[in-house]
Amino acid sequence: MIQPVLEFSHIDKAFFGVPVLTDVCLALAAGSILGLVGENGAGKSTLLNILGGILPADAGQLRIDGKPFQPARAADSSDARIAMVHQELNLFGNLSVAENLSLAELPCKRWAGLRWVDRGTLAARATSLLGKVGFEADPDTLVERLSPGERQMVEIAKALRGNPRILVFDEPTTSLTRPEAERLFSIIGQLRAEGKSIIYVSHNLEDVLRICDQIAVLRDGRVQASGPAGQFDVGRMIHQMVGRDLDGLFPRHQASRSNEVVLEVRRLSQSGVVNNIQFKLHRGELLGISGLMGSGRTELARILFGLDRYEQGEIILHGRPLPQPRPARCIRRGMALLTEDRRQEGLLMEGSVTENIAFASLRRFASGPFAWLHAKRLDQQTFELTRRLSIDCREIRHQPVRTLSGGNQQKVVLAKWLLRGSDVLILDEPTRGVDVGARHEIYVQINRMVERGAGVLLISSEMEELVGLCDRILVMARGEIISAEERENFDRREILQSAFGKERLS
Amino acid sequence: MPSKHFISWLFQYPVLWLSFGLLLVVLPVRPEIASLANLEILALSTAMLLVLAIGQTFVLITAGIDLSLPAVMSLASVVGASLIGGEGPLAGSPFAVSGTLLAMGLVGLAIGTLQGIAVGVFRMPAFLVSLASLMFFGGLAVWYTRSARIALPDEFIQIWYGRLAGIPYPILLVVLLAACAHMILARTVIGRWLYAVGQSLPASFVSGVPVQRTILFAYMASGLCAAIGAVFYSARLHTGSPQLVENEVLLDCIGAAVMGGTSLFGGQGKILGVLFGTLFLALVGNSLNLLGLRYWHVIMIKGGVILLATLLDATRHRMQPVLGGLT
After folding, report:
1. Mind telling me how many Å the CA of B183 is from chain A's nearest CA?
2. Which of A176, A408, A457, B306 has its CA 20 to 30 A from that of B262?
3. Which CATH number fits domain B7-314: 3.40.50, 3.30.70, 1.10.10, 1.10.3470?
């Protein structure tokens, strides 16, 4: 058997006791392309971070050419000639292409005791790197003037600087147009022909099938299937990515959907973000929104809550139009948003549990001309909520919420909106970074809100969560609602297929 | 037996210990530091600085800074003096003092409002806004009086020199002001909003806190406190002056706030702590004077102490562990 260039052998990794990778074994053969697919949260990024020296593995071994490899820092990985081309481009828009390509080690000349940038060498180096990816650009162009596709080329050229043997592409086509993606594929093919080994991570399963030699499917941190690309088709990959039974994890709410519409969205559009969004959310309904990252789910939530703008359309809350949503206005009329980013936008990380639960509802606990706080009543109710949601902390008045676990932090955000008495809730990825046990408790709380007559919009990347909890699921792709499924017709595969884009499968 | 809470409370304010330490060191050398006359001087200089530090604290809690204090004070001082002093329109009127106080307060509130709008609504950096105000309004004060000083009548000067039951007015007034400020911060909605905005502006906005109004309030409070400070300084000096205070007063009041546990990074600060910080700085100035040190020695030492307190604040801020994300 031929020695693989890179081997992952029995890799385990857990965050705060939650396993993210379990017994992962993968091999990358020299001069081949390995496709890595899986749902969001399946562990792909963690695996790449271990390879890149950003995270240490808890157990298991990496081997390069059969020799153990333990990267402790990012520099160890580049010394081993591993290069990453990241999803989000790490380029400096205010610098030129040539400067971006040599930023880590600017060529210098000494003169008068000072180090001066050697502009000639800088440009020559850039031209030669850009030549390797077949991108003819003036090295003095500022990166901010390039298109996303051109930036991707610069990013690849940058990755080629250390003459790597292993190249990792993490979702490289997300921001590319189709012709740009095709050009990328021909460059990847060319790199393979030069004998480089490549790991290619993408949500676009068609592309993976087309350009990869080997494919591995990750699910819940395990390698679900791996083998030559010829053994796979898109349907099989999707099945491997989602098929699992965890029915007990998802409690169903007991509410019955009323006919009362609490939130209606009509023909909502913002160019480049969402397009012609229409739906109705009823009292006592748990409505899911599914879609890949970048499908416009989060953007939709932010527009509804007045955090981002929209150009066209109508938002009707409790039967009355909401012409210019602003968070404070939305909250007054009963809406609440649990943001995707709870650290930045959900919590006062240095504040205590009580402070965090209370600070959106202070006016309801105040009276008199000076808005005097009824501290006792406020304390009583926040304490009651910490108990009801079984928020686990040592102390609720002084301990900063920063020190709580992700699940408890999320419960604090939920408690904040419960205290406010919101009855139209938009939950954006409420269980991200939350361990399995706490997830269940969060689901129970969501169900209780629905049972009390709230309308809940649940945005999630996890198909299981949506299928397990929701009454209805809207599937979004490229800023549009592609399909809407009622509970009795839920079909995980079909939902995932719409999310990945139907036309590619037919 | 002191309770556990009391002890942990004592340890919350290391600056209180520093003050005691300093007092113990100076006492054997200069026993007159504990004389009644000196304690009154100490109390008066604490009161003077505390007014300004309280205003500054409101702004610091929102993670802002107000560098315009000296200019606001000077402008309030000359506007007040031009009304009540010499041939001023209010001179001799029965409403002379109250009218002057009102006008001075309005000057402070107006400048605070302008700065609050610039920082809160237009999201301009507080540092630059207030530094520009310092220059602009400082210049305006000089231009307004053509750089002349205006003598103040006796009834105005009484605000500083008058006594009630043997206690100087300014001390009584500042105690009242500090109590109000404490209650606002601890027990009212706007007070809690100040802390929320200072801790996280995005989270406050998403949670429906009226962020712009909250920031505006902080700068108005700071402007008003500067105006009150101007009343005290002017009365003490018997004059309205376009250069009422040295700019180092600014560092004193920021330093006092930081030493009392207010964070320059926002979201933290209590009036009681600020009182201790002010007391400490006043004590440093007072004891160094008694020890016969010159003015420049005093400001050098004060500068060093404030720098150390800031280092402590930055260290505390840096020590907060950054949690790695899962994704």
Report:
1. 9
2. A408
3. 1.10.3470
